[in-house]
Design goal:
248 residues; Rossmann fold; alpha/beta; EC 3.6.-.-; hydrolase activity
Amino acid sequence: MGRILCVVNQKGGVGKTTTAVNLASALSMAQQSCLLVDMDPQCNATGSLGITPSNGHALVADQVLSESIQETSQAGLAIVPGSRTFQDVDRLDSGDEDQVHRVRKHLDSVLDQYDFVIIDCPPSVGELTQSALSASTEVLMPIQCEYFAMEGLTQLIKIIRSVMLSTDGRLTFGGILLTMYDPSLELTQEVDQEVREFFGDIVFDSVVPRDVALSEAPSHGQNVFQYAPRSRGAFAYTQLCMEVLQRD
């Protein structure tokens, strides 16, 4: 059965969508069939791959999910586009048990077609994110190497553990990823040490550096491997991909 990775952090600007898009791209380059699911109403993951947001989100529709999947310019990578339609966003964010079950049923229906399903969540710990967690097998948390990196993580981990207890227990901690990493800064070293001391082995060895290529690639409708294959960002997500595969 495929692995469903939910990329989540309650804070914006931590590299959540960047991680979802480029990890999915790296996995597809590693001969892993991958489906990216955009559950963020901002639809940044969708737009960053040059795909137009949908008029209606497939995860609230009655039709089978496979009918809404679109191929991307990256071989082996497909996407369920996000939707900015208020009605769909409200339904996804309602917390209704039937809707939570619908999301999980939709994703489970395509697990035999993909090695990985990567979910890009909104920057919140609301019902939409909890629905995504309930449908996932692993959670991946990007953490920005800045002063408030640990702020709010206690709440997020509490939500994750609550989902683990309220479902059948298939959700596990997939890993914590340090992003916007600048080894020349003392603060980065302090955050790195604090996170690794607190969370231990679930923190990935790979770190994602500050790299303008990661910021520029989405404006061209490309992932970082297409836009700047020799960049530090491309190397970092290649390393992360290898770690994710090793943790199977």
